[in-house]
Amino acid sequence: MKKLLYPIIIGLLAVVLTACGSNDEADKKNDEKETKTTEKETAKATEEQQKQMEEMQKKLDKQKVDEKKTVAIVNDEKISGAEYNTVLSTTQMQMQQLGQDPTTKEGAKQIKEQTLNSLVGQKLLLQAADKKGYTASKAEIEKQLAEIKKPYESEEKFKEALKQAGLNSETLNAQIAENIPYTKYVEKEIKVEEATDEEIQKYYDQVAEQAKTSGQKVQKLEEMKPQIKKQLEQQKKQEKLVKHVEELQKNAKVDIKI
Predict the structure, then answer these.
(1) Which portions of the sequence form the region Disordered (predicted)?
(2) For 58, which of 8, 17, 39, 237 is 20 to 30 Å away at the CA?
(3) Is residue 169 part of a domain?
(4) Residue 141's CB: how many other CB atoms inside 10 A?
C-alpha cells in the first residue's frame, strides 16, 4: 500500500498547486530562478575555494625536502627528510588553525625552525629514553595499533587514511615503537606537582571573565575543576619538558643540515 500511496499524493498535490492561480505560478518561477542563481553562485564559490586550496597546497609542498636527505644529525643519529616532512605538515596545519599564513617568508622561516626544534628535541628525548632502558614490546605495539584502528570501519578505510597521511603500515609501526618508550620516559622522568586550589581558582577566574565579556554562560568551578586541574598539570609538564630538552641539548652534538 505504501508504494501506491506515494504517486497518488504527488498527483493530488499537482492538482491543488495548479488550482492556486497564476500568482503562485509566477512566484514559483521566481523561486526557481532564485534557486538556480543561488546554486550557480554556490558552485562558483566552491570552485574558487577548491582552487585556492590547491594553490595553497602547492605552496606548502614546496617547503618539503627530499625524503632521503639528512636534515640534521643529533649525537651521530640522522634525521631524514621523510621525518622532517611529516612534522612539517603538522606544523603547517597548526599555523593555519591559528589563522596564520605558513607560506609567507616569515611564516616559512618560523615553520622551518619549529619543525627542526621539534625533531631535535624528540630525538634527544628518544636517546635519553634508550639510555634509561625504556623499550616497547611487541604486545604494547600491537595494543596501541589496535587502539588507532578502532575508529575505522574496515581495514581498507584504515589503509586509505594512512595513505592520505603519507604513511604506511611499516612507518606507522616504527612511529608507535618510538612513541611508547618516549611516553614512558616523559611520564616517569618528567615529574610535576599537582595543581593547587589557588592555581585552579586563578585560572577559573580568567576563564569566567573571558566568558562574561563575550556573553557566554559560565560553568560553576566545581564542574570545571577536574578539567582545569588536568590542563594546568599538562602545561606544567610541557614547560618542564622544554627545560629538560634544553638541558639535554647543552651536552649534545647537533648539526643542522638545511
Answers:
(1) 22-62
(2) 39
(3) yes
(4) 17
